[in-house]
Amino acid sequence: MKNLVVALYDRFVRDAMKFLVVGGAGFIIDAGVFNLMRLGANGHGNFFQGPIGAKIVSVAVATLATWVGNRYWTFREHRRQNYILEFVEFTIISLAGLGLNLLCLWVSHYVLGFTSLLADNVSGTLIGTVLAMVFRFVLYRYWVYGHYRKDGLTAVKDREARAATAAIYEPENVASHDPFSTGATPIVGEKD
After folding, report:
1. CA-closest candidate to residue 130, choices 30, 48, 34
2. Burial class (CB within 10 angstroms; exposed 0-12, middle 13-18, buried 19+) of 63
3. Across-strand partners of 152?
4. How far is Cα 156 from Cα 29, in angstroms, rounded to an integer?
5. 12-30 as b/e, with b when 16 or more CB fall inside 10 Å?
């Protein structure tokens, strides 16, 4: 039992560390795009230069990058054959995480009145991202890339292995694998 707990803990920690690396890259992308948008890279006086519009764009770009990283590295053993459904579920969770980012930013900027670029970065990019990261990791690991998912690559490989094993050991297939069998099927009622 102790070895099982250690193995599960190791697996969880390994997934969490990979997720943090991918998330770190996503954080850099998010912060970079957010600041570029806030400083007017998209022009001045439009919705996307404001804090909410800039955060929507930055999180969207970071979400696409982290989906690729999580699909092909963090959770590669459990990625789904139906990548469209996987991406849709990943995006739903990312949007919920975006809601956490935006809530932190909105409270800081509009409720508490901290309107500087530094305050926007602390509330939206730092605090909001940490809360969203924990939320996303749990749901990605146990829902989007859950081990139980029917179309996950691991689940498909397990089903294929069980089917291959069953095909070899089923009674009707035993005779065909018997080196002493003639392969002839006796006819009922036929005399020797």
Report:
1. 30
2. buried
3. 80
4. 34
5. eeebeebbeebbeebbebb
- Using an 8 Å Cβ cutoff, are 58 and 34 in contact? yes
Are 123 and 109 a contacting pair, CB within 8 Å?
A: yes
- 110-166 tens-digit pLDDT: 999 999 989 988 998 789 988 988 899 999 988 898 877 777 665 556 666 666 666
Helix, strand, coil proportions of the chain in percent (round to 5)?
A: 75, 0, 20
pTM, whole model, 2 decimals?
Answer: 0.61
Q: What's the CA angle centered on 12, arms 55 and 24, to 5 degrees?
A: 30
Q: Which amino acid is at 106?
A: W
Q: Confirm if 120 and 108 have CB atoms less than 8 A apart.
A: yes
How far does CA 79 lie from the centroid of its chain?
8
Q: Which of 123, 168, 117, 144 is nearest to 15 (CA)?
A: 144
First to last CA, the chain: 59
pLDDT of the residue at 42: 81
CA pair distance 162, 102, nearest whole angstrom = 47
Measure the CA–CA gap between 12 and 150, rounded to whole angstroms.
21
